[in-house]
Write a structure and sequence with these properties.
- It is a single chain.
- By secondary structure, the chain is α/β, with parallel strands linked by helices.
- It has two domains: 8-102, Translation factors (Elongation Factor Tu (Ef-tu), domain 3, Beta Barrel), CATH 2.40.30; 115-235, Nucleotide-binding domain of ferredoxin-NADP reductase (FNR) module (Rossmann fold), CATH 3.40.50.80.
- Helices cover 24% and strands 30% of the residues.
- The protein has helices spanning 81-89, 124-136, 158-167, 189-196, 211-223, 243-250; strands at 8-19, 24-31, 43-48, 56-59, 70-75, 95-102, 115-120, 143-149, 171-177, 204-209, 231-235.
- A six-stranded antiparallel sheet has the order 4-3-6-1-2-5. The protein has a five-stranded parallel sheet with strand order 9-8-7-10-11, with helices on both faces.
- Strand 10, helix 5 and strand 11 form a beta-alpha-beta unit.
- Helix 4 (189-196) runs parallel beside helix 5.
- The longest helix is centred in the middle third of the chain and has 13 residues, at 124-136.
- The chain starts with 7 loop residues before the first strand and ends with a helix.
- The chain binds flavin-adenine dinucleotide.
């Protein structure tokens, strides 16, 4: 397993933003100076350079690039301070503070085990970074990505992932829709996965998304035989609210 770089605080610039679903925006960040070193699957803390916007965790959605560019997939959380600022209010060109990298959602390139990535919503970000890295390394082991979305319009990078599937024999992309009819599969991951991969005893499994999504996936993945040491999770939990704000609400 490669050693993760030591976390540091660096300056970046927001250079692009586009809605990739009705609720998820893709942000493009370029380094204003020295670029961040990170491993595929890690996350960073992002805030404005006046520290008025609270720093929040976001998984990097691309494999490391010599240019130092970072791509983030940010869900617009209603009344979410930082996500709303990043997806709607922050002007292009604004300076950002990026701290990191953090996290142990890391693939062992020498594991020799097939990989399964399960992603819901913006949880696709770290799985995308792992998949991109595996493709760059020539897919030494098969990689299956199962992405769960409510409807077709909630699919993220469907065209790119479909092209990866077509271009690489060992990369399989499957999408499932949970709130719409359409070509199979449809339904939640626990309903779809057993037919797709009934035996996970030899797989490394990576699951990323909301805590509820991760918990539901962990249960089915264990039932399908994935050993604990081969199961990796990244829960996009909400940061605890400041004590003062909680106290105000409770009074
Ligand atoms: C390791 C890690 C990686 C993460 N990576 C990503 C990522 O790649 N993309 C991404 O979009 N998010 C990611 N998150 C979540 C992110 O860090 C923030 O929690 C999220 O953007 C909300 O922050 P906020 O400041 O907008 O909301 P806050 O102001 O902190 O919260 C406002 C209100 O919204 C609620 N809330 C917060 N988050 C959610 C949510 N997701 N769904 C529903 N209600 C919510 C809170 O409980 C609160 O009531 C990650 C979290 C962790 C821990």
């Amino acid at each position: 397993m490669p050693l993760a770089p030591v976390p540091e605080e660096l300056r970046y610039v927001l250079v692009g933003r586009a809605w990739v679903t009705p609720v998820v925006a893709e942000l493009s960040l370029e380094p204003a100076g020295r670029p961040l070193e990170f491993l595929p699957g890690q996350y960073v803390l992002v805030c404005d350079d006046d520290y008025r916007i609270p720093p929040r965790s976001y998984s990097v959605a691309n494999a490391p690039d010599p240019s130092g560019a970072l791509t983030l997939l940010v869900t617009d959380v209603a009344e979410g301070v930082t996500s709303r600022w990043l997806t709607r209010d922050a002007p292009l060109g604004v300076a950002l503070v990026v701290s990191g990298p953090y996290g142990t959602f890391l693939a062992d390139p020498d594991s020799g085990r097939p990989v399964l990535g399960l992603a819901g919503g913006s949880g696709l970000a770290p799985i995308l970074a792992l998949a991109e890295d595996a493709i760059r390394r020539g897919l030494p082991e098969p990689f299956t990505l199962l992405f769960s979305a409510r409807t077709e319009e909630h699919l993220i990078h469907h065209a790119r992932l479909t092209a990866w599937d077509q271009d690489h024999d060992r990369f399989q992309y499957v999408r499932t829709l949970t709130r719409a009819s359409g070509p199979p599969p449809t339904g939640h991951v626990p309903d779809v996965l057993p037919a797709l991969l009934p035996d996970l005893s030899r797989h490394d499994v990576f699951i990323a998304g909301s805590p509820g999504f991760v918990a539901a996936c962990v249960a089915v993945v264990r039932d399908l035989g994935c050993p604990p040491g081969a199961l990796h999770t990244e829960e996009f939990y909400a940061e605890p609210q400041p004590w003062g704000r909680l106290a105000d609400e409770e009074v």
